[in-house]
Amino acid sequence: MLEALLRRESAVVTAALIVLILLAWLALLAGAGTGMSVVAMSGWWLPMSLPAGESWPWTPHYWLIAFVMWAVMMVAMMLPSAAPMVLLYARVVRRADQQAASAEAPLSIASFAGGYLSLWILFSILAVAVQFALERAGLMTMMMSSRSALLSGALLIAAGVYQLTPLKAACLEHCRSPAAYLANHWRAGPMGAWRMGLEHGAYCVGCCAVLMLLLFVGGVMNLVWIAGLSLFVAIEKLAPFGPKLAKVLAVVLIGAGGALIATA
């Protein structure tokens, strides 16, 4: 009977994750509140740069729109690769609740997922600040991508070098080992779940944040880059060959960045 309950609970959590991911992607396709066509932003027919010395008017409303855009994008991109961790946590906490005759499991599961996503929400604030600085410096096009070969090359090289660092390897290992993470970081109750989600989110940000900055190279709302980075992050975290792929990408990024700078 317990196994049947666990299967049913797992199906509910899986369905909730799928709905949340789909809603995030649909919101992204709708422009994530920017009022702009994401399809058009993924093409090359818009004017390539803002007029010299000008930037978008960064009113409080525009700051909010930019934050919502980044937050929705991070949910759409990062939640799929975190789903196995959330599902395993849900199974473990439900079993523990049944043994302790507790009814906290649904709240704990939501707290765990919320803690994880809140770290990416915080990253979104940082990303908006970086976007603001780049636009004010005249380094962004109307497609919200870098107009500077030097900047693009530097971002590519930085991302490639980071892929080879011990910090990246440590964060990736935590993301790739859900069972070990839960065993070593377990905390009971909804507040414990929130803290666990925060910690897992911190490892995930440490693993992927530099890669997310590559959106400034290809275009913040460029669907090709968004989908490509999302796919790479999922493969890197979930596939058996993920760590090897991370190193291959590092070489590609460093080479591409060097080539861009050489032609600048």
From TrEMBL:
A Pfam family annotated for this UniProt entry: PpoB2
Keyword Membrane part of the UniProt annotation: yes
Organism: Methyloceanibacter methanicus
Transmembrane spans: 61-88, 109-134, 200-233, 245-263
Name recorded for this polypeptide: Metal-binding protein
Keywords for the protein's UniProt record, in alphabetical order: Membrane, Transmembrane, Transmembrane helix
Keyword Metal-binding in annotation: no
